[in-house]
């Protein structure tokens, strides 16, 4: 089947309608450049929603998957494998963790984290300690458990009974958490920076306060670093920026540089409660995914790359500020590292998707985070020339939206 034998119309014919993809179909990419079926070129500021941390088809990742593909693809969890052990060792050495569990996605990682927290509480305190507290506007995945923990009922309503004992506090509002937490709380799950919920970082006081309340009530603190992790904010994981250590951390997206992989990190004391037979996954930790993740780790976890993220963040902020000085469309630029959100002002309320669509017309791929935030999550090693050209295109898009009003 040739690439031209299918079109966007094919999606409507053969795919379930839970997505509404844009008209353009990417067929080839290199670095931060993408080409569609017609051969038109785009600059990618979306990063596959914070997944393609090294851009598209990075030569080291291509080499890793080619090499591993000729050795071993899959053995299941009845056996372990060298790439998985090497990746786990790297993660343990670079973080607070003693133990790692691998799966295939962020949702699976958060599912495992929540199950582990519940099991830890049952084993240590009894079945009455089962409350999980999450935050409104948060996002933790699409399984029934994780979508219920996520603080957006539009994603969780309409599927019948939801898992119980899950409550939601207000993000960056410690008093709202204090009103809910008690000795019945087994875990608090939070993103150090809301991703889907608007690219809103936690304040240092808030995240320190959450840690203190968890300690007070013997509740585990779970950091969902699916979107913020693996270099995205200029640290290997964002908890390191705050100096606040979680009990369990979920990771995915950038971890595989574009190849599906997820996992949780935790301590020996907590991890021992996920004993033999309590949880599993057929594909998790497969050699192909772990080989690619090892190659990505070798590049990401270096001073050169991590320090370069802060420099690129400043470039993004300067370009966005320059555009805003001219067109007055954003009320705030927020976020950290290369996960940034441009919040539209009152005059353009609800128009984030229009800015994204206009950007596509100008040859720039970006994202939204709700109706009022244009989100940027490019490759962590994006070339400064691509940043400049991408924002030249974005400025034309902004001009088009403003002119149409």
UniProtKB/TrEMBL annotation:
It catalyses: N(2)-acetyl-L-ornithine + 2-oxoglutarate = N-acetyl-L-glutamate 5-semialdehyde + L-glutamate. Its EC number is 2.6.1.11. Binds 1 pyridoxal phosphate per subunit. The modification N6-(pyridoxal phosphate)lysine is found at residue 253. It is found in: Cytoplasm. N(2)-acetyl-L-ornithine binds at residues 142, 281. InterPro entries: Ac/SucOrn_transaminase_bac (IPR017652), AcOrn/SuccOrn_fam (IPR004636), Aminotrans_3 (IPR005814), Aminotrans_3_PPA_site (IPR049704), Class-III_PLP-dep_AT (IPR050103), PyrdxlP-dep_Trfase (IPR015424), PyrdxlP-dep_Trfase_major (IPR015421), PyrdxlP-dep_Trfase_small (IPR015422). Pathway: Amino-acid biosynthesis; L-arginine biosynthesis; N(2)-acetyl-L-ornithine from L-glutamate: step 4/4. Its cofactor is pyridoxal 5'-phosphate. Pyridoxal 5'-phosphate binds at residues 106-107, 139, 224-227, 282. Keywords: Amino-acid biosynthesis, Aminotransferase, Arginine biosynthesis, Cytoplasm, Pyridoxal phosphate, Transferase. GO terms for molecular function: transaminase activity. May also have succinyldiaminopimelate aminotransferase activity, thus carrying out the corresponding step in lysine biosynthesis. Homodimer. Belongs to the class-III pyridoxal-phosphate-dependent aminotransferase family. ArgD subfamily. PANTHER family: AMINOTRANSFERASE CLASS III (PTHR11986), SUCCINYLORNITHINE TRANSAMINASE (PTHR11986:SF113). HAMAP family: ArgD_aminotrans_3. This is Acetylornithine aminotransferase.
């Amino acid at each position: 089947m040739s690439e031209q034998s299918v079109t966007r119309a094919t999606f409507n014919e053969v795919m379930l309608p839970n997505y509404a993809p844009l008209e353009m179909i990417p067929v080839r990419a290199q670095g931060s450049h993408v080409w569609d079926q017609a051969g038109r070129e785009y600059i990618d500021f979306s990063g596959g929603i914070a997944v393609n941390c090294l851009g598209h088809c990075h030569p080291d990742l291509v080499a890793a998957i080619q090499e591993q593909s000729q050795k071993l693809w899959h053995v299941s969890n009845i056996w372990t494998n060298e790439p998985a052990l090497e990746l786990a060792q790297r993660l343990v050495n670079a973080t607070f963790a003693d133990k790692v569990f691998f799966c295939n996605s962020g949702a699976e990682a958060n599912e495992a984290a929540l199950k582990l927290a519940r099991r830890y509480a049952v084993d240590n305190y009894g079945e009455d300690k089962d409350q999980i507290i999450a935050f409104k506007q948060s996002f933790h995945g699409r399984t029934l458990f994780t979508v219920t923990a996520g603080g957006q009922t539009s994603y969780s309503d309409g599927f019948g009974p939801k898992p119980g004992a899950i409550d939601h506090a207000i993000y960056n509002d410690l008093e709202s958490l204090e009103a809910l937490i008690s000795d019945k709380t087994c875990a608090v799950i939070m993103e150090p920076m809301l991703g889907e919920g608007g690219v809103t970082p936690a304040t240092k006081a808030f995240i320190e306060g959450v840690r203190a309340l968890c300690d007070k009530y013997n509740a585990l603190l779970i950091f969902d670093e699916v979107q913020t992790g693996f270099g995205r904010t200029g640290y290997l994981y964002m908890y390191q920026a705050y100096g606040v250590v979680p009990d369990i951390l979920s990771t995915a997206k950038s971890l595989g540089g574009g190849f599906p992989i997820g996992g949780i990190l935790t301590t020996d004391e907590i991890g021992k409660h996920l004993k033999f037979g309590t949880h599993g996954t057929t594909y998790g930790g497969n050699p192909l995914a772990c080989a690619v993740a090892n190659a990505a780790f070798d590049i990401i976890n270096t001073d050169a790359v991590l320090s370069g993220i802060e420099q690129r963040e400043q470039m993004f902020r300067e370009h966005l500020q320059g555009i805003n000085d001219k067109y007055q469309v954003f009320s705030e630029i927020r976020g950290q590292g290369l996960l940034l959100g441009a919040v539209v002002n009152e005059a353009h309320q609800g128009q984030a998707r229009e800015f994204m669509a206009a950007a596509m017309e100008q040859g720039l791929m970006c994202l939204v985070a709700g109706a009022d935030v244009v989100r940027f999550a490019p490759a962590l090693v994006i070339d400064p020339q691509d940043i400049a050209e991408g924002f030249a295109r974005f400025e034309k898009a902004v001009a088009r939206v403003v002119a149409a009003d």
